[in-house]
Each structure stands twice: as structure tokens, then as C-alpha cells.
Amino acid sequence: MGLTGIQIFKLLPKTNCGECGVPTCLAFAMNLAAGKAELDKCPYVSEEAKEKLAAESAPPIRPLTIGTGEYAVKVGGETVLFRHEKTFVNPPGLAALVTTEEDEASVNGKMERFKACQYDRVGMKLRAEMFAVKDASGDAAKFAALAKKVSDGTGAALILISEDVGALKEAAAGLADKKPLLCAATATNADAMGELAKEVACPLAVKGDGTLESVIALTEKLTSMGLKDLVIDTGSRELKKVFEEQIQMRRAALKDRFRPLGFPTLIMANEMASDLMEESLVAATFIAKYGGLIVLSDFQAHSLFPLFLDRLNIYTDPQRPMTAEQGIYPINNPDENSPVLVTCNFSLTYFIVSGEIESSRVPSWLCVQDTEGLSVMTAWAAGKFSGETVGTFLNKCGIKDKVKHKTVIIPGYAAGISGELEEELPGWTVTVGPREASQIPRFLKAMKG
To answer: What is the CATH number of the domain that holds 40?
Structure first.
């Protein structure tokens, strides 16, 4: 934001009503200046002030959404150069290319792999979200039919690629409600592409000639036509140059507030490598810096899974551990006689422990205590997984209403809390479980037997 907290404060109503979530207008102004609050939280700001503040507080890289439904891809909206400064927010969408020159078997194969290459990890669905549909034959009807087939068959967000504005219009007309990305406006067709994007209300990609100057000219022209949702393809296809351009654009948008380059970017990895493995390396590069949409030539599990993990790691807030929700988790259909285990809410711990309990086939209750995302040992050392905290949690979580017995199993690494926990749970027996999760199945079966 260009304005300081004091400058923003002067535009606020100064009612100190607290309805924004902080006690004073000055505190709210400081939060706005730091990017920690949104203007619409203030119910009394004037329209004049709202217009000025909205313009000043617009994200340096415009956020936009491509597609609808479960595969909608939101890109842009980033506010930092390095994820440790704050966090990266909107992970890049991954797409595979299909063209009108491909045979039906090839297209169908990519669609099937799109649906098959989906993985559950740490409570999240890892998958690709997009298809890039390219008019390679100049047949507008064939292009429109292929785009519709892919959309209907997968529900994926679409990038529609054609040099023919008429063909792009025919394809987009039948899919406008799906909000595809139109690709691409160039120096020769910017006027027609801009009018088409306005007509169908879809985001538009611009393609430069390999220079940032050409991109700036296009974005300035299109924004003057009233278009806001733009995506940048510089036109470069050499890895080093594209990498340098991504950094230059990000710095210009964030540090200099240079609006003509403040848009998400499109990386055509399929045009920057000789095979899928090289494409995957290119894609990994621009997941880190700073691709918004990345197009590959195909979907293959061995290529996608590492990219999913790369994307998950880069776009996970480094300042907030991933956590499971505090509560009671029934595993393998437990009853009132089933054992009770307790652990922390660090997501990796939860999923490993719950997975081992499930594989044991022993019906069990897993009580997950909020330790602010810390692992058992770290939480114990920090006093967040102590006899007192665990006892308070077990007394309040409702597990006593679900079982007849009075035995709880604690992690082996927290054996030191057993005495204190027994004081917090009068009449209960505290059993120390194994130190390693892999030993849980044998431990539970031995208890049962």
C-alpha cells in the first residue's frame, strides 16, 4: 500500500467502534498499511475514502480466478518476493496441452490421467487443475468441440489458445460461464482480443515478443480498454531468460508498485524443453519463482507427483505448522471397550499415528490435542503436552462418555507426563505406548490379545 498508517487514519471515520475487530481506528489503519486487514471490515468508511483507499490498497499483483467449481484456479495476489518474509498464497495451476491435431485416443488418455493422478496427502488433495486446449488446425468448429469435450469430461479449468480471434470466440462463447483464460493478445490482435475478453467476461493472456517492453505496451493498452484480469506470457522460451524476467516482473510489481507488470504469469514449459522430464524441471523452477500457470505436454504420475509436493512445500506458510483439528477421531469403528490413545495435532504426527492404528485393524479412539502444531517431543519441551494440558483436554473432550474403561495410552516420547496425568485423571490408568508409530499395530494387538 502506498499510504502510511497515519495517512489512512485520516481517511477513516474515527469512531473507534471496534466493529472491524480492533479497538481503535488507528490500530485498524496500521493493520491496513501492513496488509493485515481488509477495508471492507470497516462499516462506516465513506465512499470517497473507500474509492481512494481501495485504489491504494489493491494487491501489487492482481488476483484473478480461472475456471469455476472445484477445479477453479486462483492466481496472483502475492505480496512478497520470498516466502519466509510472509508466505506465498496462491499456488500455480498445472495444465496439460491438448491440440486439435491429436487423435481421440491421445486426448482421452490425457483426460483419464488427469482424473487418475490425484493423491491424498496430509489431509489435502494433490492434483492438477487445468487443460490448455490449442487450436492447431485452424478449424474453429473442431477447436470449440475439443474445448467442450475436455470441459465436460473433466471439469478442469481451461486455457484456450488460438491465433484466430474468430475461433477463440466460438470456443469461448459456449464456455464463457466456465471462465476460461483466453490466450493470447499480441501486438497485432490486441484490440480484437480485448473486445472479445470484454464480451465474454473472461480473463485474457497477453503475449509479448520476448521483451518486457512489449508486455508493458500490451497491458497498458488493454487496461485502458477497461480490462483488469490479465495474465502475462513474455513470449520468451529460453529458461535463463524467462527466469530472469519472472524475477524482474515480480520485483517491479512489489517493490516499485509498477502496475503494468502486476499480473500473474503464464509459463509454457512444454515449449521450453525437449521431453516431459525436462518440462518437469522447468515447471519445478517456476513453481518456486514465480509462475502463475504452468503448461506441460502431458500428465504422467512420475512427473506430476514431485511437482505436487514441490508446490505444497513452497505454498505452505513457513510460519504456521500444518495442523489437524483438535478432537476425538474414531478409527476402525470403535466401541465403549476400545482403547483410547492421545497425541498432538501436528498434522504429520496425526496422519502417521492414525494410519498405523488403521493398519492394525484394532478399533480405537484417537484423541488429538491442540499443541499449536508442535510434535510430541517439541510440545512436551514447550509445556504444551504436559500432564496438566493433556488431562484438561481429556476431561473436556467427551471421551469419558464414549468408553466404559479408564485407561489412556500416551506416546512413548511423553512418558514423563504419566504421573502428573494420573493426578489430573483420578481413577484412570496411564499406559505408556511405543516411542515409534510403526510399533503401534503390534502394541495394540498385544493389548487386545
So the answer is: 1.10.15.40
